[in-house]
Amino acid sequence: MKLISYALALILLPMAAWAQDSRFDSHDAYVRFIDNKIMSRDFIPLITQMGGRDEYTPEQMNSANARLLNAMPFDFEETALIKKVDLGNGFSQEMRAYWNNRTSYVFFYAFLHQNTDELIVLKFSLNTNSEKIFDKF
Q: Which pairs from 6-14 meet CB under 8 Å and 24+ separation?
């Protein structure tokens, strides 16, 4: 499990830079997108929407996708908002969990800003180790 967590940390480390480009019309649109992509393990569109389209070559994106699919071999069936913290002035943090009946879990963190027109994902992280996500709060 630690090996998977470390591998995911290395794979997902650059995603903080990608997230600056991520914009959604509403919080509900963001949740629908994130839930759909993570539950179906559709990582390339997730990374692309979060701003990664010009950060990696197609080969690098495919390699990262293969590693993520290997670390999370089964689609997720359930999701829940585990923690949300209002930071004021439209800023917030949230943690979401995804799991399936094979006792497989993944945890998603987002640092968000809701302005008058849109929700912006400023930073995000995906990890199989919940402690790595709880540490962000």
A: 7/67, 7/71, 8/68, 8/71, 8/126, 8/127, 8/128, 8/129, 9/127, 9/132, 11/64, 11/67, 11/68, 12/125, 12/126, 12/127, 14/52, 14/55
